[in-house]
Amino acid sequence: MVQPSITAYILIQTTTRGPDSILGFLAKQKIVKESWIVYGDQDVVAKIEAPNFTELTKLIFALRKHPELKRTKTLICST
Length: 79
Fold this sequence. Notes:
Blueprint: E1 6-14, H1 18-27, E2 32-37, E3 44-50, H2 53-64, E4 69-76
């Protein structure tokens, strides 16, 4: 039986120099399917497809250690 994956979007605020650095970090993560620099209250948005909440949580904790990060907000998609 195939386990359903978890789709989430992470909204990311960074320092002034942070968006490119954060995109580089996200590009190396297997569960990050797409990421974009955006304009407005957030600086980067990432689309995540994780096999479970444990993997999603690991990514969020790793991202929060990034020196250019200010704040994240995670939106978990439902059906």
